[in-house]
Amino acid sequence: MSDNIIVIGAGVSGVTTALTLQLLGYETEIIADKTVSDVTQNNNHPEFASLFPSASVIPHSVYSHRLEELFKQSQSFFYELRKYIFPGITTHKHFEVFEFKADQPEYCNWMLNFTSIDELSETTIPRRYDDQPLYGWLFDCIFADWSLYFPALITLYRQIGGTITQQKLNPEDVSNLKSEVIINCSGTGGPILFDDPSENQLIMRGHLLHKADAPLITNDTDEVISYNYTPQPAVYSDAEGNACDVYCYPRKDGWILGGSRQLGELNKANNWDSLSESSAYTVKEIQFPREIITLNNEILSHTYDHSFEVSDDITPSVGYRYIRNRENGLRLDKENVSGKTVYHNYGHGGAGVTLSWGCAFEIARQITSRNTKEFQNELLEKFSNIEMEKLS
Asked: How far, in Å, CA of 48 to CA of 60, rounded?
């Protein structure tokens, strides 16, 4: 197999996959229509998911028969990178709280220091008001502070010889690419460049806000707190009447607040109902559900003595998460196209950052035919020799 590999897509999946292979001795080139640094107006490109990560390492809104394996590989590697003080990688004490009894997702079995909130002091649990029955859990969560982590990832890739070429590709261009091996990390561009076997092509539209310069939210032992909080459906729900959650993820550059989960179809992105003025705020010409502010404000003020208002300096964003389908949306297979071997790595839903290392390792395993644990150890040895301060 050729040592020259082209990766299509400069989001977190493309960059992480290219970096992994570059560190393993391959010559890689990322080809992308746009990169994060090229985009000046995020809301003009809602399909570019890496513009909008929160970015907690939790497998939300992703569907794969291999989710446990891929998630555990990613989570483990993130923890190893944290030991090397890779820029932006921290941990949170993360709450998932409900105002009704909710089924515990399988991923709770994979999170470190999992605790039911029944075992916690009521004063430590995010809540809107007192005397309110709450259900849920707490666990340790890796968090990738996007303003620090992703630039460091790109800087490292370029430092070790990787190249990024800005070019919009069409299906007919694939046969002319100067490599026998192509890795497709193009996200919503995947079905445009290559045939996709999935009948459903689903996306999830989400709203989030960035409140700059907001303080870290911490507990009594100075551990950073984040949360997902789901009120009763009568308080906040989606178009089908299902309870919807809000969240807060503190970063060093402020808070990331959300959210919404509006299901739509790829290439038919306007098939969800518009928000009414009575149910929405408008900031900088972007409409978003008012519950993102009202509910988060109730929780932050009641539990953590913080608050914010729609009049504050906040930046709204609307982005898409490419779910693909709800059976096995993540695509990690290979095929021959125009004389090329094409490996697919897309359909990560809301877990692009979460699964970035696990999916990169799966692609590397297929290409190298090596044991995953073996080359992971090789990667960690190389990371141990990197001067992390030069990536900031």
From this structure: 18
